[in-house]
Amino acid sequence: MSVRSDVLDQFKLVAQEQDKQLGSLGDDVPLLDLGLDSLGFAIVVSRLEAVLGVDPFSDDEGVSFPVNLGEFVGFYENAVQKRR
Amino acid sequence: MRTPCKSVASLKEAIAVGGIVPRGSLVGAQHRVGLGDFLQGSAIAADVETLRGRSVLIASADPFLTALALIELDGAARRMILFPPDLALEHLPYVMRYAEVDAVVSDGSFLTGASLGTATHSICRPTLVAAKRLHGERLATEWILLTSGTTGRPKMVLHTLASLAGAIDASPSPTPVIWGTFYDIRRYGGLQIFLRAVLTHSSLVMAGPGEPAAGYLQRAGEAGITHISGTPSHWRRALMCPEAECIAPRYVRLSGEIADQAILNSLRSFYPNAAISHAFATTEAGVAFDVRDELSGFPVGTLADAPGVEMKVVDGTLRIRSGRTAKCYLGENPPVLKDAEGFVDTGDALDLRDGRYYFQGRRDGVINVGGLKIHPEEVEAVINRHPRVRLALVKSKKNPITGSLVVADVLLEDFSVPDAEDAGELQRTLKQFCRESLAPHKVPTAIRFVPSLAFSASGKLVRSHG
């Protein structure tokens, strides 16, 4: 499984659980237009920590927050890369 | 020079202070009213005098209307009850009974279908109509704020304008200030910003009901906001919008949740020209202090140095005494708000490391999901109603987006721990069961089945917090 597919899977699963309609999953779609609210994002990030073993949002150095889906996937790919 | 707001008798008098028309405006998603307009106009028109001395519940979908009603009624009503937008109407009879509500001001549709008993009902409108300024006797209006309680019933916290405005410096700013906030003004954090704007004759740009962060940021940017507040969760969400670039604040304020170093650093790099501070305040204890060194936690010296506030740490939690604390709770068998010496126990546990205190979560286990507080007992009571469940333990899991999430350990009726496939099915069932009676942020995001739960010698479920 690639990081990208893990990320997309979690978005789909959480949207389904939260009864939200997920929009298109293109790289340039703004994160806040995907159809998940803050709670939904929080759950995605929590599940990804369990699946991928990383939580790039908790970096104490402060982070440049991802704004679209492509950046979000890249954010996790980098974190997984860094850990290896 | 610092002008204490304690001298301010009512919001309308504060607007009229100085004898000049104040420059600030209240800006909602659809409407705008100048503070000076209140000197000649009214949003409740003919009805303000009929509400004099009454206990008035203010309920509206749009916080903009609540803002107008607060200005109209402060100093005239005996009591104002700020009904929050997300409180279920099933709690309305309880609130009305124990806050002794005998009048309601609404937007005309928010309370449709609700029974108001013998209370009168007036409509607040988003545009002011000409009205004479009346000089009736001014009352010290009580402000009732609603917060979450252990059973789902709201706790009603009684303040006055003096206690709410105790931390506000009312001297005018040399350069115009335009406030923004991600908070709803019916929450303590948002109300602080509303009062700051009105008492200092500044403007406030408010989010509309359900307005997405992106749209709000765009409007705030167009309005030229200079100062903006929100919880760390609000800020994390804002930084994920391209529209975060629409604003260029001089001052960024965080409150309502633990501000971690990650969000402080992210804001620093995103808004390089802003002063950034995180404040500690609770609905009950009031505003205690601001931390301006851009580090999480706060220096030990803050406990002794906060102007106008006495603080101490007893049994690991922060206790506060000041003129900004609430007076008491209203309600059925209201809990005690202050101890015999007048200190409020915030319930926030502190850990001392290298000369700095860090917040460790809540002693009573209250879970803070993006600024919304959840009592684990309320969620446990729901899970425990499911026939397959013997007992549930609900706790907090740290999360970088919302601060915390709700999770649960569940002991099944037959003490079994299901295998992965059955567990998945049962987790889905229990979450659905919770969704039927709980708000989304209260539904456990993860459920773990355990073979046992620990009990203390006194027979209580062992909770480990922090």
Summarize the structure.
The complex is a heterodimer of chains A (84) and B (466). With 84 residues, chain A is mostly helical.
Q: How would you sum up this structure, described in words?
A:
The complex is a heterodimer of chains A (84) and B (466). Chain A is mainly α. Chain A has a single domain, classed as Orthogonal Bundle (Non-ribosomal Peptide Synthetase Peptidyl Carrier Protein, Chain A). Chain A is 54% helix and 0% strand. Chain A has three helices and no strands. Chain A is globular, with a radius of gyration of 12 Å. The mean pLDDT of chain A is 90. By secondary structure, chain B is α/β, with parallel strands linked by helices. Chain B has two domains: 5-348, Rossmann fold; 367-449, GMP Synthetase, Chain A, domain 3, CATH 3.30.300.30. Helix content of chain B is 21%, strand content 29%. In chain B, the strands form six sheets. Chain B has an eight-stranded mixed β-sheet with strand order 2-1-12-11-13-14-15-16, with helices on both faces. In chain B, helix 11 (420-435) links the parallel strand 26 and strand 27. Chain B is globular. The two termini of chain B are 41 Å apart. Classes of the chains: A mainly alpha (84), B alpha/beta (466). The interface between A and B is medium-sized, with 24 and 35 residues.
